[in-house]
Amino acid sequence: WRSGEPIQDARALAWLAYYNCRSQPIPAVFRQAIEQNELAIRQGMATAAVFNNLGYCYLQMGDLAKAKQSLLEGLRLSPKTGELHRNMLKVELAVAARAKRPPDRTLLIEARRHNPLTGDLAWDGALFGAMTATYCDDDTVRDRSVRLTFSSCRKALDGGIDPKWIAALLKQFPVLKRDNRFQELLDPSSDQENTAPSPHETPTAALPLINPLGG
């Protein structure tokens, strides 16, 4: 499918966007999927799943305002859908990172309420704790957030997250190093300083996308 090609079936457009994003999650695919999802919505497939997937694509492209707008529309249609709450948390983490402020705890609570505690969600909790510890101005909140980050990192490792992500987190948020227990979570046999990705990337292939056809 190329931009401008006439696909009249909204279901086919939404499925194609979903499939391509799962198969090849790269910027060019996300840009195309935004166009496909928006066209599917205009053609009548204005479902929570399509709004979720559109919001995720906008998030990946860094357009946080449009990501939030799409996700809120999805939540209006389906307030209990877990993927929507996970993506809302991811948007909040990205907004807070740009503003260098603590993220809104409500979004973490809602994401945990509507999703099982997978390694990915635990990782988002670790990011939440690390950012709060870094940007808050209350020592009690900071210490509590460091503890939250440590427990979330342990759960993330139990859920299959590679230890190099912990190394990346410690490098980006030095405040965490006040808790020596983080060293227990690192893999001393690997060169993590050179291989650690950005903590804000997605650590596994379990992308918070929804099959728009319900399969």
SSE string: HHHHHHHHHH
Largest sheet: none
- What is the number of helices? 10
N-to-C span: 22 Å
Unreliable segments of 5+ consecutive residues:
none
Oligomer category:
single chain
Q: Which characteristics define this entry?
A:
215 residues, mainly alpha, Serine Threonine Protein Phosphatase 5, Tetratricopeptide repeat, 2 domains, 0% strand, 10 helices
Quick overview:
The chain is mainly alpha-helical.
Textual characterization of the structure:
With 215 residues, this protein is mainly α. The protein has 2 domains: 1-79, Tetratricopeptide repeat domain (Serine Threonine Protein Phosphatase 5, Tetratricopeptide repeat, Alpha Horseshoe); 101-208, no CATH class. The protein is built from 10 helices and no strands. The chain has helices at residues 10-23, 27-42, 48-60, 64-77, 82-99, 105-113, 119-135, 139-158, 164-172, 192-195. Helix 1 (10-23) runs antiparallel to helix 2 (27-42), helix 2 packs antiparallel against helix 3 and helix 3 (48-60) runs parallel beside helix 5. The protein is elongated.
Task: Spell out the blueprint of helices and strands.
Elements: H1 10-23, H2 27-42, H3 48-60, H4 64-77, H5 82-99, H6 105-113, H7 119-135, H8 139-158, H9 164-172, H10 192-195
Helix pairs in contact: 1-2, 2-3, 3-4, 3-5, 4-5, 5-6, 5-7, 6-7, 7-8
